[in-house]
């Protein structure tokens, strides 16, 4: 926690470009995220939000520019990539729990196999996090037996069990019924309050206002605008941002 | 709210009476419509025409002991033939005084197969158990150590041979098939090409051809003086053949794994082999149990083809015992016996797979 830590960003994207075939999906992306910073990314569908966030743990590879996470530059070197993935948790829109494993096994799998944690310790950690996402009683069920909101909270707990430094969320509430969204957002807000570094793609503007340090607006593969939420919502500078906000806040 | 429900108690309606009892079941299942009734009557008539004569042949009129087939002449089955030839059918040309060795080998195989059915043993322990079991079987069959006399593979025959070829074949073909299926989906073009070429090549030719090539052509390519055991050649041929089919079945399961599963495993920092072993294969294999067992059953029955390169498996010894001049005209009995044997094994496999399937799907609702 030296002064240097405060200043060197934990995630750095420098002039990142990416193409799918001929389609230019990310255009010259520059983004710094400091340790403990909460970044919320929004933008219209197809603007490249998922692609950008998935580049940070290299579920997608970029073709130009640099991505540096926790001091390690992402290259095609498998060892580098796995080292970074250990420190970066990710929560998906579709939960992606492992259906053949119980909730507890979902949570202990990576600590045991990746972190080489003894099973007993992994079990204890897992139960601790299940408690924190408020479903300790579901430990021995299979994911298919849980509601969507419960599944997403298990998915969050699964990432947390790896004790990551950074959490990435890709529209974690978009696949949920309205009455379940709050239970997931509550868990995320708690996490933010504890000082977790978070990059979160979401259209939950209430959540963004509560927790975001920085809002990022993307459109057509570019970061169009960024700033603290107060300013971002009160007087957006670009017309594209204004249009997007008017559409999303209309309902 | 509570008041309302108290004031207006809901009428208690019993569930509709299911057709109960034997009559109800019959009506619901066998005579639910005119067409169904006709089918039922036809079915009953067919059974009435075929089953009693078969039972009369196989049990009532059967002859259980007789010195030769002429003494058996009658309307019924001549089980005396099976009775007389039983030991030869089971152990074939294996030296008579030493036949306790294949007997124990068979028992060990059956014990291993039964042990494999217990899911709690699955894992490293089962692999060790199998290796130990196979080693003991090898020692028993070959001998030459612990004061056992040497018995070459050319004398192995009957049931132990069938079990060895089938079990060793499946046990080696299965892991090979997993590697082939994974290789076929590999991102490395060289690996992918090799796997595709192998699978397509093997699937394109009949097993008989592969066996012939292994037994006739392979020696031509080997330097003179080098010989490979005939049993080993047949065994390798069967493994290579079965692996190609199993690989395609397993690939079907791999394709059905959603991308999100792989991404989630990656995001947690699992490496390729961890991801494959812990996430992908358990789900992929559970999904393809029915076709997988189908292929196992096919392979088990395919072992009977080794007869064409001069190995005497169970069907081979049955055939050979028909050559005895004393027992002319007993081929029906012989083949019924063979059919019953193969049916029992295959039926066991299919019931077991059915049980596994239910076990895997327990508590898993999507
Ligand atoms: N594997 C792929 N191959 C080709 N094009 C792709 C691929 N994945 C995404 N795209 C395209 O890239 C663009 C950006 O996709 P991305 O998923 O990043 O958008 P998004 O901002 O997350 O949108 P949404 O809000 O709908 O999730 C889209 O136009 C999409 O069609
Ligand atoms: Mg998206």
Can you lay out the helices and strands and say which pair or pack?
The complex is a heterodimer of chains A (251) and B (366).
Chain A: H1 3-7, E1 11-20, E2 23-33, E3 38-42, H2 49-56, E4 64-69, E5 72-73, H3 78-87, E6 88-91, H4 103-113, H5 119-132, H6 148-160, E7 166-170, H7 178-193, E8 197-201, H8 205-211, E9 214-219, E10 222-227, H9 229-234, H10 239-250
Parallel strand pairs in A: 3-8, 3-9, 6-7, 7-8
Antiparallel strand pairs in A: 1-2, 1-4, 4-5, 9-10
Chain B: H1 2-7, H2 21-29, H3 34-60, H4 79-91, H5 100-116, H6 124-142, H7 159-184, H8 189-203, H9 207-221, H10 230-255, H11 259-267, H12 272-287, H13 289-302, H14 314-321, H15 331-361
Helix pairs in contact in B: 4-14, 5-6, 5-7, 7-8, 7-10, 7-13, 8-10, 9-10, 10-12, 10-13, 11-12, 13-15, 14-15
Bound molecules: adenosine-5'-triphosphate and magnesium ion.
Order of helices and strands of chain A: HEEEHEEHEHHHEHEHEEHH
Helix content of chain B: 55-70%
What do the pLDDT scores of chain B average to?
A: 83
The mean pLDDT of chain A is 90
SS class of chain B: mainly alpha
The largest sheet of chain A has its strands arranged as 6-7-8-3-9-10
What does this structure look like?
The complex is a heterodimer of chains A (about 250) and B (about 375). With about 250 residues, chain A is an alpha/beta fold. Chain A contains 10 helices and 10 strands. In chain A, the strands form 2 sheets. A 6-stranded mixed beta sheet of chain A has the order 6-7-8-3-9-10, with helices on both faces. In chain A, strands 2-1-4-5 form a 4-stranded antiparallel beta sheet, with helices on one face. Chain B is mainly α and about 375 residues long. Chain B has a domain at about 20-60. Chain B is built from 15 helices and no strands. Chain B is flat, with a radius of gyration of 27 Å. The interface of A and B includes residues 59, 85, 90 and 142 of A. Bound molecules: adenosine-5'-triphosphate and magnesium ion (MG).
């Amino acid at each position: 926690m030296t002064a240097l830590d405060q200043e060197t960003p934990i995630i750095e994207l420098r002039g990142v470009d990416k193409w799918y075939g001929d389609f230019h999906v990310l255009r010259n992306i520059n983004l710094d995220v400091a340790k403990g910073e909460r970044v919320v990314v929004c933008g219209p569908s197809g603007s490249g939000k998922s692609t950008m966030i998935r580049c940070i743990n290299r579920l997608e590879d970029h073709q130009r520019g640099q991505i540096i996470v926790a001091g390690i530059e992402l290259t095609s070197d498998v060892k580098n990539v796995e080292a970074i993935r250990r420190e970066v948790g990710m929560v998906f829109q579709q939960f992606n729990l492992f259906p053949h494993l119980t909730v507890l096994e979902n949570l202990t799998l990576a600590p045991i196999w990746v972190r080489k944690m003894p099973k007993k310790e992994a079990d204890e950690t897992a139960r601790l996090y299940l408690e924190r996402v408020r479903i300790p009683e579901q430990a021995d069920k299979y994911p298919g037996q849980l509601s969507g909101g419960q599944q997403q909270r298990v998915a969050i707990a699964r990432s947390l069990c790896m004790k990551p430094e950074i959490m990435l969320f890709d529209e974690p509430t978009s696949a949920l019924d309205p009455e379940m969204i709050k239970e997931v957002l509550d868990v995320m807000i708690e996490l933010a309050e504890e000082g977790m570094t978070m990059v979160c793609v979401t259209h939950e503007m209430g959540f963004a206002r509560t927790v975001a340090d920085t809002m990022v607006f993307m459109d057509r593969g570019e970061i169009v605008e960024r700033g603290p939420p107060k300013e971002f919502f009160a007087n957006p500078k670009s017309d594209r941002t204004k249009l997007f906000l008017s559409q999303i806040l209309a309902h | 709210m509570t008041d309302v429900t108290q004031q207006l108690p809901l009428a208690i309606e019993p569930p509709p009476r299911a057709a109960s009892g034997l009559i109800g079941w019959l009506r619901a299942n066998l005579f639910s419509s005119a067409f169904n009734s006709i089918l039922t009557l036809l079915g009953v008539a067919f059974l009435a025409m075929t089953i009693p004569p078969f039972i009369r042949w196989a049990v009532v009129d059967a002859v259980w002991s007789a010195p030769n087939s002429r003494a058996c002449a009658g309307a019924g089955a001549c089980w005396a033939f099976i009775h007389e030839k039983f030991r030869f059918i089971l152990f074939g040309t294996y030296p008579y005084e030493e036949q306790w060795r294949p007997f124990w080998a068979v028992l060990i195989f059956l014990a291993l197969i039964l042990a494999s059915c217990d899911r709690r043993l699955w894992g490293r322990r089962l692999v060790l158990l199998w290796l130990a079991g196979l080693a003991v079987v090898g020692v028993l069959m070959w001998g030459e150590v612990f004061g056992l006399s040497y018995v070459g593979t050319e004398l192995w025959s009957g049931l132990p041979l069938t079990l060895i070829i089938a079990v060793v074949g499946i046990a080696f073909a299965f892991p090979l098939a997993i590697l082939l299926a994974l290789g076929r989906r590999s991102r490395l073009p060289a690996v992918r090409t090799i796997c595709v070429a192998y699978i397509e090549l093997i699937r394109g030719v009949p097993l008989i051809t592969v066996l012939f090539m292994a037994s006739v052509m392979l020696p031509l390519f080997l330097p003179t003086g080098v010989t490979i055991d005939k049993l080993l050649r047949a065994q390798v041929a069967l493994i290579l053949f079965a692996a190609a089919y199993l690989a395609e079945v397993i690939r079907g399961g791999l394709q059905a794994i959603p991308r999100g599963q792989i991404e989630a495993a990656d995001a947690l920092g699992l490496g390729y082999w961890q991801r494959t072993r812990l996430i992908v294969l358990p789900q992929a294999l559970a999904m393809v149990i029915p076709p997988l067992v189908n292929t196992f059953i096919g392979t088990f029955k395919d072992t009977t083809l080794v007869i064409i390169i001069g190995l005497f498996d169970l069907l081979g010894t049955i055939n050979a015992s028909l050559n005895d001049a004393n027992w002319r005209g007993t081929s029906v009995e012989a083949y019924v016996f063979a059919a019953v044997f193969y049916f029992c094994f295959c039926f066991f496999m299919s019931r077991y797979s059915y049980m596994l399937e239910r076990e895997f799907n327990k508590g898993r609702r999507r």
